[in-house]
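Good day; I would like, with your permission, to put a structural problem before you. The record follows directly beneath this note:
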Amino acid sequence: MSILKSLSREQKEAVGLLQIGTFLEYFDLMLYVHMAVVLNELFFPQTDPHTASLVAAFAFCSTFVLRPFGALIFGYIGDRIGRKTTVIFTTMMMSTSCIIMANLPTYAQVGIAAAWVVTICRIVQGLSSMGEIMGAQVYLTEITKPPVQYSAVSFISVAASIGSVFALGVATLVTTTGFNWRIAFWIGAVIALVGSIARTRLRETPEFIEKSSVLRNKMAGITAQKKSGTKVNKIETLGSEKIKHKTAFSFLIIYCGWPLCFYLVYMYFNPILKRDFGYTSEDIIFHNFILSLIQFVSTLFLAVICYRIHPLKILRFVGGIFLVLVMILPFLVNNATQYWHIFAIQTAIMCFSIGDVPGISIFIKNFPVLRRVTATSFLYSVTRAVMYVVTSFGLVYLTDVFGSYGLWLIMLPVTLSYLWAIDHYGVLENVRLPRLMSIFRKRAFAR
């Protein structure tokens, strides 16, 4: 494969170790998400359907709401101590939370304490996954060069999607064959521990070492100046490295896309499948397992073709298709009379989802090196915290009031903003893209 041939032996080893770690992290993280229809019944009290939906939303969001704090913690570690330390430590945290969940008594055994403990474990998993994926992506961005960089970094997302596939595969075994779900968490804990040990083989990125060395030398120089009584000049510090506000805002908007698509595909349609088509919890898990395979193939396809086609051009095309899909989505949902109609809608959303793959490295490298992990992780985590809360709680109420057309109130602003943000990065990278706003202006002028 030409992509692999472009990488050195050390780079291939780094890609492999980081992919394995990300796979393990997302297997553990998504195991509960996709088994929520079963595990929520074990760890949370049973209530009426509406309250149950809110409880499920709470359990889902608990993984994401405190991610910004995790981003600040692991961002500090990644930008001060090193990228390598971050990806090792996060895997250890995931392993510990899995061990606790594997041994946690149910609500029937210990009451509300079970709900609180499982929520804390989910929060810990969310924190660790935050440092994991961005740490891995920043690491690969800094040790590779375009165009192989586009694919190498995108393969981290491929590994995350494989983790989701395996999580859903285990969930299917649990619900169809009686496989003990606690064993699944034990497996996740063990392989996460093995992954963290394997990652000790990684070397720190040259770009981080170089920047850190320059900063240390400058700090040593200013210390010497102070001792000698010489007037001290301002030097470049971590706090003085400039982050462009428009670029940061564009990054924030782009990363709002995937949480919306994920929730729509894996969560939003579950009550519809149960209510209108008689799906059981087991049916939904298997249904989502098939969708996860589609997600994996779609992500892999994008990761491969970006070696030949510029990532921003791919994202601009996909975003345009998704906008069309958004416009007709309420009509499609309202006229879905067979279960496969819903499946087709979910497949379309998955294949043309708006997200960061395969432009991840482009978005990352536009941030200063010594603020890169903190800035990207924090912005990434904010989008997850905000969007998962907005979608999981907002859509419950919006669709109650407006029906399927309530989807527009969230999907249209996010999609249009996403296209604008891609245009902004097109300008930064000097890549010619069909500009969204210029198209609108031309149409208005023609009228």
